[in-house]
Fold this sequence. Notes:
Order of helices and strands of chain B: EEEEHHHHHH
Oligomer: heterodimer
Number of domains of chain B: 1
Mean pLDDT of chain A: 89
Helix content of chain A: over 70%
Strand content of chain A: under 5%
Distance between the termini of chain A: 5 Å
CATH class of chain A: Mainly Alpha
Distance between the termini of chain B: 55 Å
Number of strands of chain B: 4
Low-confidence stretches of chain A: none
Number of helices of chain B: 6
Strand order of the largest sheet of chain B: 1-2
Number of domains of chain A: 1
Structural class of chain B: mainly alpha
Strand content of chain B: 5-15%
Mean pLDDT of chain B: 82
Shape of chain A: rod-shaped
Order of helices and strands of chain A: HH
Largest sheet of chain A: none
Amino acid sequence: MDSLVAAASVIAAALAVGLAAIGPGIGQGTCAGQAVEGIARQPEAEGKIRGTLLLSLAFMESLTIYGLVVSLVLLFANPFS
Amino acid sequence: MEFFAGSKVYTFLPLASLEVGEHFYWNIGGLTVHGQVFMTSWFVIALLVIASLAATRNIQRVPSGIQNFMEFALEFVRELAKNQIGEKEYRPWVPFIGTLFLFIFVSNWSGALLPWKLIQIPSGELAAPTNDINTTVALALLTSLAYFFAGFRKRGLGYFAKYLEPTPILLPINILEDFTKPLSLSFRLFGNIVADELVVAVLVLLVPLFIPLPVMALGLFTSAIQALVFATLAAAYIHEALEGHGGEEHE
């Protein structure tokens, strides 16, 4: 592989995961905060809130995972090499 | 440590090796298939079939042992389908949703719990079947077929009316959605499983003992959640196809 392509791919892979982690991080923080608020207001609904929270956290996490898939493609199955 | 050429990354300890993009190829009738995925998915299928047979072989009125456990699994899956699809129409979809959930769940956990790497194969390595993007794409495309089938059977050609539903301006977006659904389903599952394995492998490379255990436990948790997410989303898509786009009568 061309060293320039290799360097660009490594930087792109790092950026893909790093940038993709920002949005879901903010979202998950907001989500968890709201869930804690909900539990504090209504402790008997804790089970339901936790279930919904985990499911929606998994959805947000998948956005970062898309970035990870892109970086894996760049590192292991690079189309430009 | 060769990063690019062979795609074989970390070969530090025999148990901590990690390979991405290396496969054990089989040629069947002119098709090249990934043999390691076939072997592990046959194992998962056999496990599920044996468990179901053992649970239903000698059915008691008061369940105990494995029958009890499988009834619990069935009830879990049925509740999942009922919550998403609704009381009236969930029943014919329980087998589909249940198969998706159980197959993905057992695959993910088999990849995390069984020491596949002790079994040597000529190239590539044995891991969870959902570790391969082809498996997850196949499952996602099956989901697409299922919701198209559900929509056509319920409403015939009137199913296409849902593409114009909020306003006809959104037609391209609605068509695009049919492509993004299987894409996001498959990438989510694949990425989560591969991410778990990568994180565990990198930690094992750094500290081989004890430290990776909490991450492995987290991996078990997330892979269970991913199986649940896949099944829930498949059921939600089927519900959307049955009900029309707006989802006007959510219970």
